Amino acid sequence: xxxxxxxxxxxxxxxxxxxxxxxxxxxxxxxxxxxxxxxxxxxxxxxxxxxxxxxxxxxxxxxxxxxxxxxxxxxxxxxxxxxxxxxxxxxxxxxxxxxxxxxxxxxxxxxx
Amino acid sequence: xxxxxxxxxxxxxxxxxxxxxxxxxxxxxxxxxxxxxxxxxxxxxxxxxxxxxxxxxxxxxxxxxxxxxxxxxxxxxxxxxxxxxxxxxxxxxxxxxxxxxxxxxxxxxx
Lengths: 112, 110
Known about the structure:
Radius of gyration of chain A: 13 Å
Structural class of chain A: mainly beta
Order of helices and strands of chain A: EEEEEEEEEEE
Number of domains of chain B: 1
Oligomer: heterodimer
CATH class of chain A: Mainly Beta
CATH topology of chain B: Immunoglobulin-like
Largest sheet of chain B: 6 strands, mixed
């Protein structure tokens, strides 16, 4: 069964460093998303992406964040200069034609 | 502002009992989703409810949607330990981003 895959599963970084979180969406999906979940809290929308451009972004998605689809399969989230409060689980999702979003297993980002 | 509220936040129940999780939403979009999350894991899609009066069932879980009341319920019948997880309802806005509720942590005790 097709699935969304995310790498790495856990990323530890120092404050101020850049990180890139990677996702491979389901191959015939056209809409891609990033969400984050701070430990013990609800899942929050970060950004949606369609046709090689951002279609919507939240207030959380400031200038430190960027997304890219560098080739036909990968979808990446970059955080340029990580802060302690960026520590969270980051989920990638892709959406099918009946609007169901399928989530990857997530990347746990720990900023020290 | 889109709001999705769930209650209760935490539910401890004994095996064999029935209970209901409630999800209230504020928008006019009437697509409602239920997801399950096991600790440290991803979100698994359980149900998609698309219209008023929609009811879907899978095993011991049944979800329903009342668009007039802007309310969805997730009913658990004869709970078993394997159902222990966090359950999220979510609604999608006009741009299809998902707005999640706070989640309900369900703990089924033997």
